[in-house]
Design goal:
Chain lengths: 231, 120
């Protein structure tokens, strides 16, 4: 039996082109198209499709509308699988999409949509409650997981991370204590623990501070949870 | 002012039809032909003498970039816009002779007119 699909994309050309491809495909029955998340939701409610194919960036903000719609649809209509289409490999988006489970969800790069077999395979997978991830996305997520697993910051407690973030913002111990509502002694204790966990026990105090901040900035991509000065 | 005569090249019919719909919606532009491969686009361009060719990058046989190179190396060559699903800042059309690269997702009457104004 053909997979009943609702397709959402705000671009006329992509919508018409992909809709045309799906219409020509016997494995798929395209029951509705939508140009924005509101139309998409209405179409899903009306048609209860087996699968939704949706662009990520749609009106009004052209950021994560498709991810938000996917999560909402999965929550409200658990019988409907959702395959999101993305222009780029956006690991953060994929991570957000899949953070609460992968069942009935898929993530496909737009460059694959003209390869009808792949598109149909992915739609069939999410429709039966499985998942389908673009191989490039899987690679990205694996790299991300590996870097997180090997992060030198992993052994730090939440409080130690907060203290380190303050140091990275250039704060003194006293300013850190004040910002985090801690005693000076507690700050010193946390800093000493951070140095130990980051293997910075042999350096001078100033060097250790700098080294710890460098480790933090490298592990958080330069910004991380660094508080804004004066914030 | 005469209409800009457009040749559409894409191996997938739904995209050809969608592109044709965009062109017909754009004031001052008219579709004069469609081709499904790079080789066919060369023959069609020689016969139809279009002002503008909308060329898909991914084509069977010679791809859109190579077809563009051949088309634009001739005298009185048409203006060629390359199109694909890649984002506009990800694709480098330099060296192909294409006047512009337009992401399929971005192609609409406004973008087509704007790219034509810039190119001509």
């Amino acid at each position: 039996m053909a997979v009943r699909v609702v397709f959402a994309d705000d671009s006329f050309l992509v919508r018409e082109g992909v809709a045309g491809l799906l219409t020509e495909t016997p494995e798929v029955e395209l029951v509705a198209t939508a140009t924005n998340p509101v139309e998409l939701h209405a179409a899903v409610e009306a048609h209860r499709p087996d699968a939704v194919l949706t662009d990520i960036r749609m009106p009004p903000t052209f950021t994560t509308e498709g991810i938000d719609a996917a999560k909402r649809i999965r929550a409200e209509f658990p019988e409907t699988g959702v395959l999101v289409l993305s222009q780029y490999i956006e690991e953060q988006y994929a991570f957000d999409l899949l953070s609460e489970g992968v069942a009935g969800l898929g993530y496909l790069l737009k460059e694959r949509v003209s390869q009808v077999d792949e598109l149909v395979g992915a739609l069939e997978a999410v429709a039966r409650g499985g998942s389908s991830l673009d191989p490039k996305v899987v690679e990205g997520l694996m790299a991300r997981k590996t870097s997180q697993e090997s992060s030198p910051l992993l052994g730090l407690t939440e409080r130690e991370l907060e203290v380190l973030a303050e140091l990275a913002a250039g704060r003194s111990n006293a300013a850190t204590a004040s910002a985090l509502f801690m005693s000076d002694r507690a700050v010193e204790k946390h800093i000493s623990s951070v140095f130990q966990k980051l293997d910075l026990t042999q350096e001078s105090d100033v060097n250790r501070r700098v080294m710890a901040v460098l480790v933090f900035l490298e592990a958080t991509g330069g910004a991380g949870n660094r508080p804004q000065p004066g914030g | 002012m005469t209409d800009v005569r457009v040749l559409i090249v894409d191996d997938q019919e739904p995209f050809r039809l969608a592109m044709a719909a965009v062109v017909e919606e754009t004031a001052g532009f008219v579709v004069v032909g469609m081709a499904t491969t790079g080789e066919e686009s060369l023959t069609a361009a020689a016969a139809l003498l279009p002002d503008l060719v909308l060329m898909d990058v991914n084509l069977p046989g010679i791809d859109g970039v190579e077809a563009t190179r051949r088309l634009t190396s001739a005298a009185d060559a048409p203006v060629v816009f390359l199109l694909s699903t890649y984002d506009e800042d990800e694709f480098d059309a330099a060296g192909s002779g294409a006047a512009a690269y337009v992401a399929k997702a971005a192609l609409g009457p406004d973008r087509l007119s704007e790219a034509w104004s810039t190119a001509s």
